[in-house]
Design a protein that fits this description.
299 residues; mainly alpha; three-stranded antiparallel β-sheet; 12 helices
Amino acid sequence: MMRSPDRISTSIRRASGEITTRTEPYISLAKRHKFLGQPILRGIVSFFEMLVIGIKTLNYSAEVTAADEESDASDISSPVSRKMNLALAGTIVVSMALAIGIFFFLPLLFAQLLNVHKEALGFNLIAGIIRMVMFVMYIKAISYLKDIKRIFAYHGAEHKTIFAFEADLPLTVENTRKFTTLHPRCGTSFILIVALMAILTYAVSDSIFASTFGHQPFLLQRFALHFSLLPLVAGVSYELLKLSGKTRNNKLTKFFIAPGLWLQKITTREPEDDQLEVGITSLIASIEGTQLYNEKVRV
């Protein structure tokens, strides 16, 4: 899936070997409404928009898979396709609930069990470390699954394609192959920035809570407070990610983005040529007919 300033394209390799691409117009709320385009607010908007886009992309992928597996599933109103959509919706709901419970609530619980809940910074530092360790262990564990290996290879193909585009090279397999799979503006790096920003933000929020109510928040209070501040954490992290992308050649920036790039060594793999073709197809479709296409795509 590739997103340009005014459209989103999703390309999928069918069972037959052909590439199917769906392109839809999409302009972010942050661009349609000036107020929402302000720093931090645009990050919050982008955070929720990408959740929605991700779910829609998964839904489209499921429909294409159903069309390949069942002859009548090419009609998205067919019983098979409806079952696929319902199953996907249920999977997404369960997955989000598990993600919140495992990666948000459990670190708070473990930190409290370690008896560090009396001090805001110490508590959130321990909870943040636990959260990151659990996340890295989870990513590492699933990276051994066959299907996930292929997904991570497509992730690498996206990065290589974007690098070639940013370098003003013709979008060919040969040119994209030259680049690394590690990109500083990747969502993997964003997650790491969020985790680090959360430690600082939640330490401040817990301190404010303690000074207001005379005690550190209890476990459920802390969970509710931290969860409600997640959009703010995401908004600030988004600005830091954009800054790191613009200044990635700066020595200080390289130092701070290094952990995110290390994590991408797990979430990306070297793609095959057919996967690079899918990435190129998606990117070209997302900018075709625009000024960017006229200026940069020379194949």
